[in-house]
């Protein structure tokens, strides 16, 4: 690993984490009610709790800003790695995608454990979804379609989120192998198989982080106690 790569990696991690630590749910709820969303409802600083505890308007604002936060964070990782000097057999395309994943993971970590709010934040679902969109829109559409099917069938957001987090690495593996790796075999722009493995591994870590943050929801789902979505009037 070169000094340049180390510097860019550290810069991406720090910037992405600090961006992720900005929590719209907390800011918007304070502006609307003067209260801390983490003391309301489920105690989670995220879209679903804002929807249930504060209302539709603040929830919509929360999801928009959470999405923008994720997109900005991942785009910065993209930019930092985009003009990296290539000194080995790693394709520039690989570096860029790795930079996006790296930034996205630390935006999620910042969202879940925000520096500015005593390390108590949200579950990272919306931010993870923004990561999927910027990294690979094809995988994003597959995940979004899966979520919508589950949500409209059950009206339980957490179930859709957990299922999509679990299947995210599977979709990533299928898309990168069949649509990226195989079509470029024996071409000047050939990707190594490690691209599929590393992309799948990154997707697995992202999905695992989201699932771990839903440990209480998983318990309620198993007990049949998880609430269906219902917005505050």
Which series of helices and strands comes N to C?
Answer: HHHHHHHHHH
Number of helices: 10
Q: Report the sheet-strand fraction.
A: under 5%
Radius of gyration computed on alpha carbons: 18 Å
Main sheet, how many strands, which sense, barrel? none
Structural class of the secondary structure composition?
mainly alpha
Stretches where pLDDT falls below 50 for ≥5 residues?
A: none
Describe this structure in words.
This protein has 233 residues and is mainly α. It has one domain. It has ten helices and no strands. Helix 4 packs antiparallel against helix 5 and helix 5 packs antiparallel against helix 6. The longest helix is centred in the N-terminal third of the chain and has 27 residues. The radius of gyration is 18 Å and the shape is globular. The model has no long low-confidence stretch (mean pLDDT 91).
């Amino acid at each position: 690993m070169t000094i340049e790569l180390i510097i860019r990696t550290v810069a991406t991690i720090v910037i992405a984490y600090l961006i992720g630590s900005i929590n719209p749910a907390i800011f918007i709820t304070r502006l609307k009610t003067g209260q801390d969303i983490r003391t309301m409802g489920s105690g989670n600083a995220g879209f679903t709790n804002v929807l249930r505890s504060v209302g539709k308007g603040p929830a919509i604002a929360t999801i928009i800003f959470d999405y923008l936060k994720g997109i900005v964070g991942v785009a910065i990782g993209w930019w930092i790695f985009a003009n990296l000097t290539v000194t080995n057999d790693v394709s520039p395309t690989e570096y860029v995608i790795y930079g996006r994943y790296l930034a996205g993971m630390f935006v999620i970590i910042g969202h879940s454990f925000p520096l500015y709010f005593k390390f108590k934040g949200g579950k990272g679902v919306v931010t993870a979804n923004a990561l999927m969109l910027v990294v690979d829109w094809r995988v994003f559409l597959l995940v979004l379609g899966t979520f919508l099917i589950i949500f409209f069938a059950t009206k339980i957001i957490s179930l859709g989120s957990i299922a999509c987090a679990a299947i995210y690495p599977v979709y990533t593996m299928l898309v990168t192998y069949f649509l990226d790796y195989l079509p470029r075999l024996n071409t000047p722009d050939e990707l190594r198989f490690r691209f599929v493995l590393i992309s799948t591994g990154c997707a697995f870590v992202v999905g695992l982080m989201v699932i771990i943050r839903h440990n209480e929801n998983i318990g309620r789902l198993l007990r049949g106690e998880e609430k269906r979505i219902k917005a505050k009037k």
